[in-house]
Amino acid sequence: MAELVKKSKDKFYRGKNVNDLKLLDIREFAKLVKARARRTLLRNYDVVAAFVKKCEIKDRKKRPIKTHDRALVIVPQMVGKSIGVHNGKEFVKVVVTEEMLGHRLGEFSMTRKIAKHTKMGIGASKSTSSMAK
């Protein structure tokens, strides 16, 4: 019985195979995403298409793709690419996977550090102020 059930390793997005989605136009992919992402893709089609074209060109030259556009919606043509997304200080490397489709690039490049509260430094309290002298 276990032999009859085959586990599919194909990734799906909204019932469509990701390999099939890569063949779709960006406008056709926009019909599958949620409303806000669809609106962005349809209004900024030329920006997204230019970035996808840039990804293909830089991928051939083996150069990293860097961008400041954190609001860019991830489309199937970007899957598998490594993109440097600016977080305000540096470019954070983001490897695009199938689960990221329809999300924005900025969601995967954090702009704030996690606060690590450790012990007080010298001069932070009255007892340590004498240690500094």
Question: How would you describe this protein?
Answer:
The protein is of the alpha+beta class. The chain is 30% helix and 13% strand. The protein has helices spanning 18-23, 26-30, 35-43, 45-60, 126-129; strands at residues 12-13, 16-17, 65-67, 82-86, 91-95. The strands form 2 sheets. Strands 3-4-5 form a 3-stranded mixed β-sheet. It is elongated and about 70 Å long. The model has no long low-confidence stretch (mean pLDDT 86).
Give keywords.
30% helix, three-stranded mixed β-sheet, 13% strand, alpha+beta, two-stranded antiparallel sheet, 133 residues, 30s Ribosomal Protein S19, Chain A
What's the pLDDT, averaged over the residues?
A: 86
CATH topology: 30s Ribosomal Protein S19, Chain A
Number of strands: 5
How many angstroms does the end-to-end distance come to? 78 Å
Low confidence ranges: none
Radius of gyration: 22 Å
* CATH level-four homologous superfamily name: Ribosomal protein S19/S15
Number of domains: 1
Share of helix, binned? 25-40%
